[in-house]
């Protein structure tokens, strides 16, 4: 990872997040450097939805080159459900599968609009990716796979449901 200039950080550390943002801005400013590959979901889910994007990668400026990736599970499923399978079981399944096949769509470049904040820009990019991959858009992040849902989020969803009904 050191040879390919990875930027490693601990998401829970505020200092690390600021340092990463600074390093990304410096990288973008240097036109001699290759583009940065960022997975703004921060996790991988079950291939049916696109989860909330972390806004940090959309706060640094520059042009976003969205890529939609969707796995085809017919020959082997790349998704690891850590609540059902151990790492060893997952690794065995991947290594003994016929193939891991995915569709990759390179979408037109996108830039942040003048009156758009980072969250709205991230959501616009996410919607384009989800539409191309035939996936649904989810308003929450991958942390819900491992943590309890906050009561405030439940209440917000209940209020939305009540308005529909």
Automatic annotation (TrEMBL):
The keyword Protein biosynthesis does not apply. GO terms for biological process: phospholipid biosynthetic process; triglyceride biosynthetic process. InterPro entries: LPCAT1-like, Plipid/glycerol_acylTrfase. The keyword Transmembrane applies. Pathway: Phospholipid metabolism; CDP-diacylglycerol biosynthesis; CDP-diacylglycerol from sn-glycerol 3-phosphate: step 1/3; Lipid metabolism; Glycerolipid metabolism; triacylglycerol biosynthesis. Keywords: Acyltransferase, Endoplasmic reticulum, Lipid biosynthesis, Lipid metabolism, Membrane, Phospholipid biosynthesis, Phospholipid metabolism, Transferase, Transmembrane, Transmembrane helix. GO terms for molecular function: glycerol-3-phosphate O-acyltransferase activity. SUPFAM superfamilies: Glycerol-3-phosphate (1)-acyltransferase. Its main location: endoplasmic reticulum. It is a multi-pass membrane protein. It holds the Pfam family Acyltransferase. One of its GO terms (cellular component) is endoplasmic reticulum membrane. It is found in: Endoplasmic reticulum membrane. Residues 1-70 form the Phospholipid/glycerol acyltransferase domain. Belongs to the 1-acyl-sn-glycerol-3-phosphate acyltransferase family. This is GPAT3 acyltransferase. It comes from Cephalopterus ornatus. The lineage of its organism: Eukaryota, Metazoa, Chordata, Craniata, Vertebrata. The gene is Gpat3_1.
